[in-house]
Amino acid sequence: MWHQPQARCPLIVFLVPRVARYPDGPIFGYRLGWVDQLSLENRTALVTGASRGIGAATARALDRAGARVALVARSREDLGKVAAGLGRDPVVIPADLREPGAAGEVAARALEALGSVDILVNNAAAAARLPTVDTDAAIIDQMLAVNVRAPLLLIAALIPAMTQRRQGSIINLSSVSGLIGTPRRAAYAASKGAIDAATRSLAIELGPMGIRVNSVAPGVVDTALWASNKKVEGVIEAVESLTPLRRWAQPDDIADVIVFLASDAARFVTGETICVDGGMGRALDLYGGPV
Ligand SMILES: NC(=O)c1ccc[n+]([C@@H]2O[C@H](COP(=O)([O-])OP(=O)(O)OC[C@H]3O[C@@H](n4cnc5c(N)ncnc54)[C@H](OP(=O)(O)O)[C@@H]3O)[C@@H](O)[C@H]2O)c1
Q1: How would you classify the pairing of strands 119-122 and 68-73?
Q2: For ligand 1, is residue 125 a contact (CB within 6 Å)?
Q3: Residue 55 contacts by C-beta under 8 Å, 6 or more apart in sequence?
Q4: Active site annotation includes 188
Q5: pLDDT in tens, 95-108
Q6: Ligand 1 midpoint to CA 124 (Å)
Q7: Burial code of 28-52, b = ≥16 C-beta within 10 A, e = fewer?
Q8: Phi, psi of 174 (to 5 degrees)
Q9: For the CA of 50, the nearest atom of ligand 1
Q10: Lateral strand order in the sheet of 119-122
Q11: Which domains does the chain have, with CATH numbers?
Q12: How far apart are CA 275 and CA 151, in angstroms?
């Protein structure tokens, strides 16, 4: 009975016994296993700053990977527009993370609506580029409140539920500004350096509970954050020339790495800050030219 199909379909006859024998092997099994590990089917996620830019791209990427997503930002209208494009019954939670009580309320509402939060993406940020001489207490307080206090309080509020399921992946949005010197960003850079430090500390504290904590550090991403700077003559080209991969990042470039960190493919990665910057933060084009 085997003889005829063998003669007709040599490729199938070659592959089927190998896939059956080596389900994690190098032909199909490995590839299918990898895709499986990137799947977020039956997971739940909370993304702050999900109304535009990197947060919106992340919400869409998590949704595509199979997670049910809760979206947080101040603008209910903008969140609604992002949610309308998602396919897995998203939850919209408008909140102002500058408020001290907001993180706790957001976590409670997310847990009530989703039943669990397996993935937390602390993405919302307040940013300012200005000389330090023009920096005042209100600006510093706002940046620390949104970029450091709110992420820490969200994590604190979600630890019990993640611990109960022995499953959690927390991804904090950092920046190259937290890792290298960038101009007119002392307060913003301090907030990003702080979240990287917290990431490493939390990895130790939460690892035994099955919770991983990592940061993603973008370089220059084409979002509203850069809209006004982009209009300055020469800025587009300057960013390109400082980036070894010679282009601006798009929000999806960052979102895809966040999905990886959220997934089982990154199951042994914690306490890490991953630069997603086209090489900008680690490379210095010393002479800016051919020598
Ligand atoms: N773009 C870049 O080049 C770049 C580079 C390095 C790092 N990053 C980091 O990547 C993350 C996302 O940046 P992005 O460029 O996508 O920023 P963005 O386009 O300005 O979006 C920021 C998001 O945060 C929300 N948000 C701001 N303040 C908030 C508050 N008080 N409460 C709740 N939500 C608030 C905004 O929504 P509402 O205004 O509706 O509240 C929006 O959804 C940030 O952590 C940023 O520091 C960006």
Answers
A1: unpaired
A2: yes
A3: 47, 48, 49, 71, 73, 121, 123, 124
A4: yes
A5: 999 999 999 999 99
A6: 4
A7: ebeeeeeeeebebeebbbbbbbbbb
A8: -105, -145
A9: 43
A10: 91-94, 68-73, 44-48, 119-122, 168-173, 211-218, 273-276
A11: 11-40 (no CATH), 42-276 (3.40.50.720)
A12: 19
Per-residue pLDDT tens for 170-218? 999 999 999 999 999 999 999 999 999 999 999 999 999 999 999 999 9
Express each pLDDT in 130-181 by its tens digit: 999 999 999 999 999 999 999 999 999 999 999 999 999 999 999 999 999 9
**pTM, rounded to two decimals:** 0.91
Q: Tokens 């949005």 map to which residue? A: 173
278 lines ligand 1 (CB under 6 A): no
Quote the tokens at residue 212: 């991983």
Compute the distance from residue 63 Cα to the ligand 1 centre, in Å: 19
